[in-house]
Every structure is written in C-alpha cells, then in structure tokens.
Amino acid sequence: MRDFLRQSLLNSFSLYLVAAVYPGLIIPQNLWQLLWIGLAFTLLNFLAKPVLKLILLPLNLITLGLLSWLVQVLVLVIAVRLLPTLQVVPAILPAWHQSGFSVPALSINIWLSFILASLSLSLVYKLLDGILCPD
Questions:
Q1: What is the dihedral of CA 55, 120, 22, 108, to 10 degrees?
Q2: In whole angstroms, what is the distance from residue 44 CA to residue 48 CA?
Q3: Percentages (nearest 5) of helix, strand, coil residues in the chain
Q4: What is the residue-level pLDDT of the chain in tens, covering all 135 positions?
Q5: Are strands 106-108 and 25-26 parallel, antiparallel or unpaired?
Q6: Quick count: other Cβ atoms within 10 Å of Cβ 104?
Q7: How many angstroms separate the CA atoms of 23 and 41, rounded?
Q8: Quick one: which H or E segment has residue 108?
Q9: Which stretches does DSSP call E strand in 1-135?
C-alpha cells in the first residue's frame, strides 16, 4: 500500500512537471484533481500495462524490444479517454534563434504529442523515483 501511494504521488508530480514544460499535456490546476489523476494513472499502470504487454508481446519480440515504449503510450491514451480533465493536444513549439543558429517552429500532431508526453512522463518518473526513493 505504501509503494502504491508513493507511485501515485510520483505520477502526480511527474504529470505536473511535464505539463509545466510541454504545452501538449493539459492537466487540471486543482491539486486534488491532479492527485486523483495520479492515482488513476497508477491504477492503469498496475492493471492495463501487463495486459497490453502481453498483447503486444509478439510485436515486441519481432522488434527485439524497440517498440516497448508503445505500451506506455497506449496507457496514456487510455488514461486520456477515461479521465476528462487530462488532455493531450497537438502542440506548436516556438522557433528559436541563437547566434546565427536557427530552429524553425515545430508543429506536433496528436499522435506525436502522445508519444512525446508519454516518453517525457516515463523519463521524469524514473528520474524522480531514482532521486527521491533510492533503494
């Protein structure tokens, strides 16, 4: 139970941090709603993730594990469908110019937005878990 609560809080904080940096992830500003979304996201990770891994096992074996990130993307898609206050939207990243180096504005569609949000959530969660809860 203690591990489940820790993971729920880490998921909530990860959602908050990623939403603060990436404009394609929209979360509620209410703390209690954010904690409920973290709890639901943790439940989906416990319940849906093993089932999705089993379903995608042949694809994962064929690609030698290169598409293992697809499971986390599908969990995020399910979470967005189930939770009305959590949204992933297409994003436009602004242009950047520095000392003669220029990066044009980037338009990200909905599926790439899901992939970027999911990978960012996984990365932030793993970093927070490693820093705050070293075993």
A1: -50
A2: 5
A3: 65, 10, 25
A4: 788 899 999 999 999 999 999 989 999 889 999 999 999 999 999 999 999 999 999 988 898 888 888 999 999 999 999 999 999 999 888 888 888 888 888 888 999 999 999 999 999 999 999 998 776
A5: unpaired
A6: 10
A7: 20
A8: strand 106-108
A9: 25-26, 87-88, 91-93, 96-98, 101-103, 106-108
Element (DSSP H or E) covering residue 3: helix 2-21
CA nearest neighbour of 108 among 23, 33, 21: 23
Residue found by looking up tokens 């209410």 in the block: 30
91 pairs with which residues across the strands?
Answer: 108
Q: What global pTM score does this model have?
A: 0.87
CB 19 within 8 A of CB 25: yes
Largest CA distance in the chain: 54
Place of tokens 């970027």: 116
Helix (H) / strand (E) element for 87: namely strand 87-88
